[in-house]
Specification:
It is a single chain. The chain is an alpha/beta fold. Helix content is 49%, strand content 15%. The chain contains 10 helices and 8 strands. Strand 5, helix 5 and strand 6 form a beta-alpha-beta unit. The longest helix is centred in the C-terminal third of the chain and has 26 residues. The chain is elongated.
Amino acid sequence: MDNSTLDRIEIILVDTQDGANIGSCCRAMKTMGLTNLTLVTEREYDENRVSTLALHAKDLYLNRKEFKTLEEAIKDSVFTVGATRRRGKLRKMSSYAPEDLAEKLSDFPEGKISIVFGREADGLRDDEVNMLSSIVTIPTSPLFPSLNLSQAVQIIAYELFKASRPYKSGITAVSHERILQAGKEMVSHLEGIGYFKWDEEKKWTEQLLEDVIEKAGLQESELQRFEKIFRKVEKIKIYKEGKDNA
């Protein structure tokens, strides 16, 4: 059975400050065929402010999912990406352009895809970006590089809509939650062979492995074989040390 790529994409808004901006995002989403909205917040919003800007897209807000933490919101996603214009050591070293992200997602294995947008004032925090495997950056003029929240949603939604095409179901990628579990296990095996010289190296290696696995869209059987490599490396070291000490 063929399914639309857009049906499995959710837009996640993190701690949006003004309900009017949520309404504008709903309108931006629906005009491009996106209908899955998730809010990460503990705020209560004035529904009138949401409705005024959402117009005929208010149903997205009424049917929204809501979580208190980003970690909860993305745990069953197979691909997670944050919208941000800032890059660096703590925020991923590379990013997708909106059109490149749209092309990648159009062929990605089955499962929920989460695109995360931050606060109006300061976007996503470093720790939030690090929960996600990838980032998408919208090119802007250095004269005024900051985009309004709903403008950013509209631009990325437009690229997703342009690249959308049916995909065949059946090939399912592992979830974000499962990838985190695998990352911890693989790093524990590297730790067992004395790979790490300092704590920061362990942290960034774990994050790198998790990001690479998620971007690859591995199936469960493939991930298990990947985990086995790390498990076997540690066993070989233990065996060799045992022989040397015999």
